[in-house]
Amino acid sequence: MITTSNIYTKCGMVGVSHFPWGHMKSTVKTKWVYSCLPAFTSINNFAGQRFIYKTSSEVLFERESNAVTDGRLQNFPVSSYETAMEKISSLITRQRRGEKPPISNKLEIMSLYLKILGLDEDINKLNIIHVAGTKGKGSTCIFCEAILRECGFRTGVFTSPHLIDVRERFRIDGIDISEDKFLQYFWDCWNRLEENTTEQLSMPPLFLFLTILAFKIFISEQVDAAIIEVGLGGKEDSTNVIKEPTVCGITSLGMDHTEILGDTLGQIASHKAGIFKVPLEVTEPFDCKQMKGLELGLSGDHQFYNAALAVSLSRCWLQRTGNWGKKYQKDSNLPDEFIRGLSTAHFSGRAQIVYDSSPNSDCSEILSKNCGGELIFYLDGAHSPESMETCAKWFSNAVKRYEISSHSSFEVENAEESLENGHFLHESKTLEQLEKSFRRILLFNCLDVRNPHILLPRLVNTCASSEMTTLLEKDFKIDNKEILPPHEFLYDDASSGCHSHNYLARSAVIPSLPLTIKWLRDCVRDHPSTRLQVLVTGSLHLVGDVLKLLKR
Predict the structure, then answer these.
(1) In the predicted model, is pLDDT for residue 430 greater than 90?
(2) Can you list the domains of the chain with their CATH numbers?
Protein backbone atom coordinates (compact mmCIF):
# COMPACT_ATOMS: atom_id res chain seq x y z
CA MET A 1 0.00 0.00 0.00
CA ILE A 2 1.49 3.34 -1.05
CA THR A 3 0.18 6.75 -0.09
CA THR A 4 1.19 10.38 -0.45
CA SER A 5 2.28 12.49 2.49
CA ASN A 6 0.04 15.43 1.51
CA ILE A 7 -3.12 15.48 3.67
CA TYR A 8 -5.44 18.48 3.55
CA THR A 9 -7.25 19.85 6.58
CA LYS A 10 -10.70 21.31 6.81
CA CYS A 11 -11.20 25.04 6.32
CA GLY A 12 -14.31 26.90 5.25
CA MET A 13 -15.91 30.31 5.64
CA VAL A 14 -19.08 32.11 4.53
CA GLY A 15 -18.19 35.79 4.33
CA VAL A 16 -14.58 36.92 4.24
CA SER A 17 -12.46 39.99 3.74
CA HIS A 18 -10.23 39.64 0.74
CA PHE A 19 -8.19 41.34 -1.94
CA PRO A 20 -10.05 41.06 -5.29
CA TRP A 21 -8.00 39.89 -8.25
CA GLY A 22 -6.13 42.58 -10.08
CA HIS A 23 -2.79 44.15 -10.89
CA MET A 24 -2.70 47.39 -8.88
CA LYS A 25 -1.16 47.99 -5.45
CA SER A 26 -3.86 49.30 -3.13
CA THR A 27 -3.89 48.05 0.47
CA VAL A 28 -7.60 48.57 1.13
CA LYS A 29 -9.37 45.39 2.16
CA THR A 30 -12.97 44.98 1.08
CA LYS A 31 -15.87 42.70 1.79
CA TRP A 32 -16.98 40.42 -1.03
CA VAL A 33 -20.72 39.83 -1.04
CA TYR A 34 -22.46 37.31 -3.26
CA SER A 35 -25.66 35.34 -3.41
CA CYS A 36 -26.77 32.13 -5.07
CA LEU A 37 -29.63 32.63 -7.47
CA PRO A 38 -31.85 29.58 -8.14
CA ALA A 39 -32.46 28.19 -11.62
CA PHE A 40 -30.36 30.68 -13.58
CA THR A 41 -26.82 31.40 -14.60
CA SER A 42 -25.53 34.46 -12.76
CA ILE A 43 -22.54 36.62 -13.69
CA ASN A 44 -20.77 38.76 -11.13
CA ASN A 45 -18.72 41.38 -12.93
CA PHE A 46 -15.60 42.63 -11.22
CA ALA A 47 -14.67 44.73 -14.29
CA GLY A 48 -11.60 42.63 -14.81
CA GLN A 49 -12.87 39.65 -12.80
CA ARG A 50 -16.29 38.17 -13.64
CA PHE A 51 -18.14 35.42 -11.82
CA ILE A 52 -20.86 33.28 -13.31
CA TYR A 53 -22.91 30.99 -11.07
CA LYS A 54 -24.99 28.10 -12.31
CA THR A 55 -27.32 26.11 -10.08
CA SER A 56 -27.18 22.35 -9.84
CA SER A 57 -30.81 21.96 -10.92
CA GLU A 58 -30.10 23.50 -14.29
CA VAL A 59 -26.94 21.44 -14.82
CA LEU A 60 -28.77 18.23 -13.99
CA PHE A 61 -31.61 19.14 -16.31
CA GLU A 62 -29.24 19.77 -19.21
CA ARG A 63 -27.27 16.59 -18.63
CA GLU A 64 -30.40 14.49 -18.46
CA SER A 65 -31.65 15.95 -21.72
CA ASN A 66 -28.36 15.00 -23.38
CA ALA A 67 -27.90 11.65 -21.69
CA VAL A 68 -29.08 9.66 -24.68
CA THR A 69 -28.97 11.97 -27.66
CA ASP A 70 -25.46 13.27 -28.31
CA GLY A 71 -23.86 14.52 -31.50
CA ARG A 72 -21.40 11.66 -31.30
CA LEU A 73 -24.16 9.10 -31.32
CA GLN A 74 -26.12 10.20 -34.36
CA ASN A 75 -24.08 8.06 -36.75
CA PHE A 76 -25.07 4.85 -34.96
CA PRO A 77 -28.28 2.91 -35.62
CA VAL A 78 -30.91 3.13 -32.91
CA SER A 79 -30.49 -0.58 -32.18
CA SER A 80 -26.87 -0.24 -31.04
CA TYR A 81 -25.18 2.69 -29.36
CA GLU A 82 -28.24 4.81 -28.72
CA THR A 83 -30.08 1.89 -27.22
CA ALA A 84 -27.07 1.09 -25.07
CA MET A 85 -27.14 4.65 -23.73
CA GLU A 86 -30.84 4.24 -22.93
CA LYS A 87 -30.08 1.06 -21.00
CA ILE A 88 -27.30 2.77 -19.07
CA SER A 89 -29.60 5.69 -18.23
CA SER A 90 -32.15 3.23 -16.86
CA LEU A 91 -29.63 2.19 -14.20
CA ILE A 92 -29.39 5.69 -12.74
CA THR A 93 -30.93 5.69 -9.28
CA ARG A 94 -32.67 8.81 -8.02
CA GLN A 95 -30.94 8.53 -4.66
CA ARG A 96 -29.90 11.87 -3.18
CA ARG A 97 -26.46 12.19 -1.66
CA GLY A 98 -26.52 11.35 2.02
CA GLU A 99 -29.42 8.91 1.69
CA LYS A 100 -28.96 5.25 2.52
CA PRO A 101 -27.65 3.43 -0.57
CA PRO A 102 -30.16 1.15 -2.31
CA ILE A 103 -27.79 -1.82 -1.89
CA SER A 104 -26.40 -2.41 1.59
CA ASN A 105 -24.33 -5.52 0.85
CA LYS A 106 -22.69 -4.07 -2.24
CA LEU A 107 -19.60 -6.30 -2.35
CA GLU A 108 -21.63 -9.49 -1.94
CA ILE A 109 -23.91 -8.43 -4.78
CA MET A 110 -20.87 -7.52 -6.91
CA SER A 111 -19.50 -11.00 -6.38
CA LEU A 112 -22.78 -12.53 -7.60
CA TYR A 113 -22.77 -10.39 -10.75
CA LEU A 114 -19.17 -11.32 -11.51
CA LYS A 115 -19.93 -15.01 -11.02
CA ILE A 116 -22.85 -14.80 -13.46
CA LEU A 117 -20.46 -13.36 -16.07
CA GLY A 118 -17.72 -15.86 -15.24
CA LEU A 119 -15.33 -13.07 -14.23
CA ASP A 120 -14.90 -13.85 -10.54
CA GLU A 121 -11.74 -15.92 -10.97
CA ASP A 122 -10.30 -13.95 -13.88
CA ILE A 123 -10.15 -10.71 -11.88
CA ASN A 124 -7.42 -12.21 -9.74
CA LYS A 125 -5.34 -12.75 -12.89
CA LEU A 126 -5.30 -9.03 -13.67
CA ASN A 127 -2.22 -7.15 -12.47
CA ILE A 128 -4.16 -4.35 -10.81
CA ILE A 129 -3.14 -0.97 -9.45
CA HIS A 130 -6.01 0.11 -7.17
CA VAL A 131 -6.15 3.83 -6.25
CA ALA A 132 -8.32 5.60 -3.67
CA GLY A 133 -8.19 9.11 -2.15
CA THR A 134 -10.17 12.34 -1.94
CA LYS A 135 -8.32 14.36 -4.56
CA GLY A 136 -6.03 13.32 -7.38
CA LYS A 137 -6.85 9.64 -7.64
CA GLY A 138 -7.94 9.94 -11.27
CA SER A 139 -4.82 11.91 -12.21
CA THR A 140 -2.63 9.37 -10.41
CA CYS A 141 -4.27 6.57 -12.41
CA ILE A 142 -3.64 8.45 -15.65
CA PHE A 143 0.02 8.99 -14.74
CA CYS A 144 0.42 5.28 -13.91
CA GLU A 145 -1.18 4.23 -17.18
CA ALA A 146 1.03 6.52 -19.23
CA ILE A 147 4.19 5.34 -17.46
CA LEU A 148 3.49 1.64 -17.88
CA ARG A 149 2.41 2.12 -21.49
CA GLU A 150 5.72 3.86 -22.19
CA CYS A 151 7.42 0.88 -20.56
CA GLY A 152 5.92 -1.32 -23.28
CA PHE A 153 2.92 -2.84 -21.51
CA ARG A 154 -0.67 -3.10 -22.69
CA THR A 155 -2.71 -1.00 -20.31
CA GLY A 156 -6.30 -0.51 -19.25
CA VAL A 157 -7.52 2.27 -16.97
CA PHE A 158 -10.94 2.81 -15.40
CA THR A 159 -11.77 6.32 -14.10
CA SER A 160 -14.89 8.31 -13.30
CA PRO A 161 -16.89 10.31 -14.05
CA HIS A 162 -16.93 10.83 -17.79
CA LEU A 163 -17.29 14.34 -19.17
CA ILE A 164 -18.96 13.85 -22.55
CA ASP A 165 -19.01 10.16 -23.55
CA VAL A 166 -19.21 7.15 -21.23
CA ARG A 167 -16.41 5.50 -23.19
CA GLU A 168 -13.98 7.97 -21.59
CA ARG A 169 -14.11 5.82 -18.47
CA PHE A 170 -12.44 2.89 -20.24
CA ARG A 171 -9.05 3.48 -21.84
CA ILE A 172 -7.05 0.83 -23.63
CA ASP A 173 -3.44 1.79 -24.30
CA GLY A 174 -4.24 5.41 -23.51
CA ILE A 175 -7.22 5.71 -25.89
CA ASP A 176 -10.94 5.61 -25.12
CA ILE A 177 -12.37 2.23 -26.03
CA SER A 178 -13.80 2.16 -29.55
CA GLU A 179 -17.55 2.24 -30.02
CA ASP A 180 -17.56 -1.19 -31.65
CA LYS A 181 -15.70 -2.84 -28.79
CA PHE A 182 -17.71 -0.96 -26.22
CA LEU A 183 -20.95 -2.27 -27.74
CA GLN A 184 -19.58 -5.82 -27.94
CA TYR A 185 -18.70 -5.95 -24.25
CA PHE A 186 -21.68 -3.89 -23.13
CA TRP A 187 -24.29 -6.13 -24.70
CA ASP A 188 -22.55 -9.29 -23.55
CA CYS A 189 -22.68 -8.08 -19.93
CA TRP A 190 -26.16 -6.58 -20.19
CA ASN A 191 -27.87 -9.56 -21.78
CA ARG A 192 -26.35 -12.14 -19.43
CA LEU A 193 -27.15 -10.11 -16.33
CA GLU A 194 -30.69 -9.39 -17.51
CA GLU A 195 -31.30 -13.08 -18.17
CA ASN A 196 -30.34 -13.87 -14.59
CA THR A 197 -32.34 -11.22 -12.76
CA THR A 198 -34.71 -12.37 -10.02
CA GLU A 199 -36.85 -10.75 -7.37
CA GLN A 200 -33.81 -10.82 -5.09
CA LEU A 201 -31.24 -9.83 -7.73
CA SER A 202 -32.16 -6.94 -10.03
CA MET A 203 -29.95 -5.21 -12.57
CA PRO A 204 -27.02 -3.44 -10.87
CA PRO A 205 -27.04 0.32 -10.26
CA LEU A 206 -25.04 2.44 -12.69
CA PHE A 207 -21.59 2.53 -11.07
CA LEU A 208 -21.67 -1.16 -10.20
CA PHE A 209 -22.51 -2.01 -13.79
CA LEU A 210 -19.75 0.21 -15.16
CA THR A 211 -17.26 -1.36 -12.75
CA ILE A 212 -18.30 -4.82 -13.91
CA LEU A 213 -17.99 -3.66 -17.52
CA ALA A 214 -14.46 -2.40 -16.83
CA PHE A 215 -13.41 -5.80 -15.53
CA LYS A 216 -15.01 -7.46 -18.56
CA ILE A 217 -13.18 -5.14 -20.97
CA PHE A 218 -9.77 -5.48 -19.34
CA ILE A 219 -9.98 -9.27 -19.03
CA SER A 220 -11.17 -9.66 -22.62
CA GLU A 221 -8.56 -7.24 -23.97
CA GLN A 222 -5.86 -9.11 -22.04
CA VAL A 223 -4.22 -6.02 -20.64
CA ASP A 224 -0.90 -6.41 -18.84
CA ALA A 225 -1.78 -3.74 -16.29
CA ALA A 226 -5.23 -2.66 -15.11
CA ILE A 227 -5.40 0.65 -13.23
CA ILE A 228 -8.66 1.00 -11.28
CA GLU A 229 -9.87 4.21 -9.64
CA VAL A 230 -12.11 3.84 -6.59
CA GLY A 231 -15.52 5.43 -7.03
CA LEU A 232 -16.29 6.58 -3.47
CA GLY A 233 -14.42 5.86 -0.25
CA GLY A 234 -12.78 2.47 -0.58
CA LYS A 235 -13.85 -0.09 1.98
CA GLU A 236 -17.41 -0.41 0.68
CA ASP A 237 -16.80 0.72 -2.90
CA SER A 238 -17.77 -1.68 -5.66
CA THR A 239 -14.17 -1.75 -6.93
CA ASN A 240 -13.08 -3.29 -3.62
CA VAL A 241 -14.21 -6.64 -4.92
CA ILE A 242 -10.55 -6.78 -6.02
CA LYS A 243 -8.95 -9.24 -3.60
CA GLU A 244 -5.43 -9.59 -4.96
CA PRO A 245 -4.20 -6.26 -6.34
CA THR A 246 -0.56 -5.95 -7.33
CA VAL A 247 -0.33 -2.64 -5.44
CA CYS A 248 -2.72 -0.08 -3.95
CA GLY A 249 -2.36 3.69 -3.60
CA ILE A 250 -3.99 6.44 -1.54
CA THR A 251 -3.85 10.04 -2.75
CA SER A 252 -4.41 13.23 -0.74
CA LEU A 253 -7.24 13.23 1.79
CA GLY A 254 -9.74 16.03 2.28
CA MET A 255 -13.25 16.88 3.40
CA ASP A 256 -15.60 15.54 0.74
CA HIS A 257 -18.59 13.17 0.75
CA THR A 258 -18.72 13.75 4.50
CA GLU A 259 -22.38 12.72 4.66
CA ILE A 260 -21.27 9.18 3.72
CA LEU A 261 -17.64 8.87 4.83
CA GLY A 262 -17.77 10.92 8.04
CA ASP A 263 -16.89 14.47 8.99
CA THR A 264 -13.34 13.95 10.26
CA LEU A 265 -10.15 13.05 8.43
CA GLY A 266 -9.83 9.99 10.63
CA GLN A 267 -13.22 8.64 9.58
CA ILE A 268 -12.52 9.41 5.92
CA ALA A 269 -9.09 7.78 6.13
CA SER A 270 -10.61 4.60 7.55
CA HIS A 271 -12.79 4.26 4.45
CA LYS A 272 -9.86 4.86 2.11
CA ALA A 273 -7.74 2.36 4.05
CA GLY A 274 -10.36 -0.27 3.29
CA ILE A 275 -8.49 -1.14 0.08
CA PHE A 276 -5.24 -1.91 2.01
CA LYS A 277 -3.99 -5.42 1.29
CA VAL A 278 -0.24 -4.83 1.48
CA PRO A 279 2.19 -3.05 3.86
CA LEU A 280 2.00 0.75 4.01
CA GLU A 281 4.67 2.98 2.52
CA VAL A 282 4.66 6.80 2.23
CA THR A 283 6.02 8.24 -1.01
CA GLU A 284 8.93 10.62 -1.17
CA PRO A 285 8.32 14.14 -2.57
CA PHE A 286 8.72 14.39 -6.32
CA ASP A 287 11.91 16.07 -7.49
CA CYS A 288 11.07 18.00 -10.67
CA LYS A 289 14.78 17.93 -11.62
CA GLN A 290 14.26 14.28 -12.50
CA MET A 291 12.13 15.38 -15.47
CA LYS A 292 15.24 16.55 -17.35
CA GLY A 293 13.71 19.86 -18.36
CA LEU A 294 10.28 18.48 -19.34
CA GLU A 295 7.00 19.45 -17.64
CA LEU A 296 4.31 17.17 -16.29
CA GLY A 297 1.53 16.47 -18.78
CA LEU A 298 -1.05 17.50 -16.16
CA SER A 299 -0.76 21.11 -15.02
CA GLY A 300 -0.67 22.49 -11.50
CA ASP A 301 1.74 22.21 -8.59
CA HIS A 302 -0.59 19.71 -6.89
CA GLN A 303 0.17 17.24 -9.68
CA PHE A 304 3.66 16.73 -8.26
CA TYR A 305 2.06 14.85 -5.35
CA ASN A 306 0.12 12.67 -7.78
CA ALA A 307 3.20 12.14 -9.96
CA ALA A 308 5.25 11.06 -6.94
CA LEU A 309 2.62 8.48 -6.00
CA ALA A 310 2.33 7.29 -9.62
CA VAL A 311 6.11 6.80 -9.86
CA SER A 312 6.11 4.71 -6.67
CA LEU A 313 3.10 2.67 -7.76
CA SER A 314 4.55 2.01 -11.21
CA ARG A 315 7.94 1.04 -9.80
CA CYS A 316 6.28 -1.29 -7.29
CA TRP A 317 4.12 -2.80 -10.04
CA LEU A 318 7.21 -3.48 -12.16
CA GLN A 319 9.01 -5.03 -9.20
CA ARG A 320 6.15 -7.30 -8.15
CA THR A 321 5.49 -8.49 -11.70
CA GLY A 322 9.19 -9.31 -12.14
CA ASN A 323 9.81 -6.64 -14.76
CA TRP A 324 11.92 -4.07 -12.90
CA GLY A 325 15.15 -6.06 -12.88
CA LYS A 326 14.71 -6.96 -16.54
CA LYS A 327 14.44 -3.35 -17.67
CA TYR A 328 16.16 -1.04 -15.21
CA GLN A 329 19.23 -0.73 -13.04
CA LYS A 330 18.87 -0.28 -9.30
CA ASP A 331 19.77 3.41 -9.23
CA SER A 332 17.96 6.54 -8.13
CA ASN A 333 17.51 8.03 -11.60
CA LEU A 334 14.02 8.21 -13.04
CA PRO A 335 13.87 5.95 -16.14
CA ASP A 336 13.30 7.69 -19.46
CA GLU A 337 10.06 5.75 -19.93
CA PHE A 338 8.75 7.22 -16.68
CA ILE A 339 9.68 10.72 -17.80
CA ARG A 340 7.92 10.26 -21.13
CA GLY A 341 4.81 8.93 -19.43
CA LEU A 342 4.64 11.76 -16.91
CA SER A 343 5.19 14.40 -19.59
CA THR A 344 2.64 13.04 -22.09
CA ALA A 345 -0.23 12.11 -19.71
CA HIS A 346 -3.53 13.80 -20.57
CA PHE A 347 -6.77 14.02 -18.58
CA SER A 348 -9.60 16.19 -19.86
CA GLY A 349 -11.24 18.59 -17.46
CA ARG A 350 -8.37 18.66 -14.99
CA ALA A 351 -6.37 21.89 -15.18
CA GLN A 352 -7.13 22.00 -18.91
CA ILE A 353 -6.85 25.10 -21.09
CA VAL A 354 -9.00 25.39 -24.21
CA TYR A 355 -8.66 28.27 -26.69
CA ASP A 356 -11.91 29.19 -28.41
CA SER A 357 -11.88 31.77 -31.20
CA SER A 358 -14.92 33.72 -32.35
CA PRO A 359 -17.03 31.65 -34.79
CA ASN A 360 -16.72 34.46 -37.35
CA SER A 361 -12.94 34.72 -37.01
CA ASP A 362 -10.83 33.89 -40.05
CA CYS A 363 -7.71 33.32 -37.94
CA SER A 364 -6.19 29.87 -37.93
CA GLU A 365 -3.86 30.71 -35.04
CA ILE A 366 -5.94 31.66 -32.01
CA LEU A 367 -2.94 32.96 -30.11
CA SER A 368 -1.71 35.13 -32.97
CA LYS A 369 -1.58 38.84 -32.13
CA ASN A 370 -3.39 39.45 -35.41
CA CYS A 371 -6.28 37.25 -34.40
CA GLY A 372 -7.95 40.02 -32.40
CA GLY A 373 -10.23 38.97 -29.56
CA GLU A 374 -9.70 35.75 -27.69
CA LEU A 375 -11.84 33.51 -25.53
CA ILE A 376 -9.80 31.21 -23.30
CA PHE A 377 -11.35 28.58 -21.03
CA TYR A 378 -9.53 27.26 -17.97
CA LEU A 379 -11.32 24.07 -16.91
CA ASP A 380 -10.91 22.14 -13.68
CA GLY A 381 -13.45 19.93 -11.94
CA ALA A 382 -12.51 20.99 -8.40
CA HIS A 383 -15.44 20.62 -6.00
CA SER A 384 -14.13 20.58 -2.42
CA PRO A 385 -12.66 23.41 -0.31
CA GLU A 386 -9.15 21.99 -0.64
CA SER A 387 -9.37 21.44 -4.39
CA MET A 388 -10.88 24.90 -4.94
CA GLU A 389 -7.76 26.38 -3.39
CA THR A 390 -5.56 24.20 -5.57
CA CYS A 391 -7.56 25.18 -8.65
CA ALA A 392 -7.23 28.86 -7.79
CA LYS A 393 -3.46 28.58 -7.50
CA TRP A 394 -3.26 26.84 -10.87
CA PHE A 395 -5.51 29.42 -12.55
CA SER A 396 -3.63 32.37 -11.06
CA ASN A 397 -0.30 31.00 -12.25
CA ALA A 398 -1.69 30.12 -15.68
CA VAL A 399 -3.10 33.59 -16.39
CA LYS A 400 0.06 35.23 -15.10
CA ARG A 401 2.17 33.14 -17.47
CA TYR A 402 -0.14 34.05 -20.33
CA GLU A 403 -0.01 37.76 -19.54
CA ILE A 404 3.77 37.70 -19.15
CA SER A 405 4.01 36.02 -22.54
CA SER A 406 1.70 38.62 -24.08
CA HIS A 407 3.62 41.40 -22.34
CA SER A 408 6.89 40.13 -23.79
CA SER A 409 5.41 39.95 -27.28
CA PHE A 410 4.09 43.51 -26.93
CA GLU A 411 7.52 44.77 -25.85
CA VAL A 412 9.24 43.16 -28.84
CA GLU A 413 6.66 44.61 -31.22
CA ASN A 414 7.10 48.10 -29.74
CA ALA A 415 10.88 48.10 -29.20
CA GLU A 416 11.29 51.19 -31.38
CA GLU A 417 8.72 53.10 -29.33
CA SER A 418 10.55 52.11 -26.16
CA LEU A 419 13.79 53.65 -27.45
CA GLU A 420 12.03 56.93 -28.31
CA ASN A 421 10.03 57.43 -25.12
CA GLY A 422 12.25 55.77 -22.55
CA HIS A 423 11.93 52.34 -20.89
CA PHE A 424 9.98 53.41 -17.81
CA LEU A 425 7.23 55.23 -19.70
CA HIS A 426 6.94 52.41 -22.22
CA GLU A 427 6.59 49.81 -19.48
CA SER A 428 3.78 51.77 -17.81
CA LYS A 429 1.94 52.08 -21.09
CA THR A 430 2.29 48.35 -21.72
CA LEU A 431 0.83 47.40 -18.34
CA GLU A 432 -2.10 49.78 -18.80
CA GLN A 433 -2.91 48.39 -22.24
CA LEU A 434 -2.61 44.81 -21.04
CA GLU A 435 -4.91 45.42 -18.07
CA LYS A 436 -7.61 46.84 -20.27
CA SER A 437 -7.37 43.89 -22.69
CA PHE A 438 -7.92 41.11 -20.13
CA ARG A 439 -11.22 40.19 -18.50
CA ARG A 440 -11.56 37.28 -16.06
CA ILE A 441 -14.73 35.27 -15.59
CA LEU A 442 -15.72 32.47 -13.24
CA LEU A 443 -18.26 29.96 -14.54
CA PHE A 444 -19.24 28.05 -11.42
CA ASN A 445 -21.60 25.28 -10.37
CA CYS A 446 -21.73 23.00 -7.36
CA LEU A 447 -24.16 20.25 -6.47
CA ASP A 448 -26.81 21.10 -3.90
CA VAL A 449 -25.08 19.07 -1.18
CA ARG A 450 -22.06 21.41 -1.36
CA ASN A 451 -22.07 24.94 0.02
CA PRO A 452 -21.00 27.70 -2.39
CA HIS A 453 -20.59 30.05 0.58
CA ILE A 454 -17.67 27.83 1.60
CA LEU A 455 -16.26 26.99 -1.82
CA LEU A 456 -16.33 30.42 -3.47
CA PRO A 457 -14.50 32.40 -0.76
CA ARG A 458 -11.79 29.72 -0.73
CA LEU A 459 -11.41 30.13 -4.47
CA VAL A 460 -11.45 33.92 -4.59
CA ASN A 461 -9.24 34.47 -1.56
CA THR A 462 -6.56 32.22 -2.99
CA CYS A 463 -6.65 34.03 -6.33
CA ALA A 464 -6.48 37.36 -4.53
CA SER A 465 -3.78 36.45 -2.01
CA SER A 466 -0.92 38.01 -3.97
CA GLU A 467 -2.85 40.87 -5.60
CA MET A 468 -4.38 43.96 -3.95
CA THR A 469 -7.12 46.19 -5.33
CA THR A 470 -10.10 48.18 -4.17
CA LEU A 471 -13.56 46.79 -4.87
CA LEU A 472 -16.52 49.06 -5.51
CA GLU A 473 -19.81 47.21 -5.22
CA LYS A 474 -22.58 48.09 -7.64
CA ASP A 475 -25.66 46.10 -8.56
CA PHE A 476 -26.47 45.45 -12.19
CA LYS A 477 -29.85 43.79 -12.57
CA ILE A 478 -31.94 42.60 -15.50
CA ASP A 479 -35.66 42.50 -14.79
CA ASN A 480 -36.49 40.19 -17.69
CA LYS A 481 -34.67 36.87 -17.30
CA GLU A 482 -35.04 36.17 -21.02
CA ILE A 483 -32.94 39.19 -21.99
CA LEU A 484 -29.17 38.83 -22.16
CA PRO A 485 -27.02 41.53 -20.58
CA PRO A 486 -25.50 44.05 -22.99
CA HIS A 487 -21.88 43.52 -23.95
CA GLU A 488 -21.01 46.75 -22.13
CA PHE A 489 -21.52 44.71 -18.97
CA LEU A 490 -17.96 43.47 -19.47
CA TYR A 491 -16.39 46.61 -20.87
CA ASP A 492 -17.93 49.82 -19.61
CA ASP A 493 -15.48 50.26 -16.72
CA ALA A 494 -13.08 51.89 -19.18
CA SER A 495 -15.69 54.15 -20.76
CA SER A 496 -17.10 55.22 -17.40
CA GLY A 497 -13.81 56.81 -16.45
CA CYS A 498 -13.37 54.54 -13.43
CA HIS A 499 -9.86 54.76 -12.02
CA SER A 500 -7.85 51.68 -12.84
CA HIS A 501 -7.16 51.01 -9.14
CA ASN A 502 -10.86 50.27 -8.58
CA TYR A 503 -13.02 47.39 -9.74
CA LEU A 504 -16.78 47.43 -10.11
CA ALA A 505 -18.74 44.48 -8.70
CA ARG A 506 -21.80 43.66 -10.77
CA SER A 507 -24.14 40.75 -11.27
CA ALA A 508 -26.50 39.60 -13.98
CA VAL A 509 -28.54 36.53 -14.89
CA ILE A 510 -28.32 34.45 -18.08
CA PRO A 511 -30.99 31.77 -18.60
CA SER A 512 -28.80 28.84 -19.70
CA LEU A 513 -25.28 27.57 -20.21
CA PRO A 514 -25.48 27.48 -24.04
CA LEU A 515 -26.63 31.11 -24.03
CA THR A 516 -23.77 31.97 -21.69
CA ILE A 517 -21.18 30.51 -24.08
CA LYS A 518 -22.83 32.25 -27.03
CA TRP A 519 -22.89 35.55 -25.14
CA LEU A 520 -19.17 35.28 -24.31
CA ARG A 521 -18.34 34.49 -27.94
CA ASP A 522 -20.39 37.45 -29.12
CA CYS A 523 -18.61 39.73 -26.65
CA VAL A 524 -15.23 38.68 -28.00
CA ARG A 525 -16.37 39.06 -31.59
CA ASP A 526 -17.68 42.57 -31.03
CA HIS A 527 -14.65 43.65 -28.97
CA PRO A 528 -11.65 42.29 -30.88
CA SER A 529 -9.08 43.91 -28.58
CA THR A 530 -10.30 41.99 -25.53
CA ARG A 531 -9.25 38.62 -24.20
CA LEU A 532 -11.68 36.81 -21.91
CA GLN A 533 -10.17 34.31 -19.46
CA VAL A 534 -12.95 32.02 -18.21
CA LEU A 535 -12.35 29.73 -15.23
CA VAL A 536 -14.83 26.82 -15.24
CA THR A 537 -14.92 24.93 -11.96
CA GLY A 538 -17.01 23.58 -9.10
CA SER A 539 -18.26 20.45 -10.83
CA LEU A 540 -16.93 17.95 -13.36
CA HIS A 541 -20.47 17.82 -14.76
CA LEU A 542 -20.30 21.52 -15.55
CA VAL A 543 -16.83 21.09 -17.08
CA GLY A 544 -18.18 18.31 -19.30
CA ASP A 545 -21.13 20.41 -20.44
CA VAL A 546 -18.84 23.30 -21.35
CA LEU A 547 -16.46 21.03 -23.26
CA LYS A 548 -19.42 19.59 -25.13
CA LEU A 549 -20.59 23.06 -26.14
CA LEU A 550 -17.10 24.13 -27.19
CA LYS A 551 -16.77 21.11 -29.47
CA ARG A 552 -19.95 21.93 -31.38
Answers:
(1) no
(2) 81-92+104-344 (3.40.1190.10), 349-360+372-406+435-472+483-490+504-551 (3.90.190)
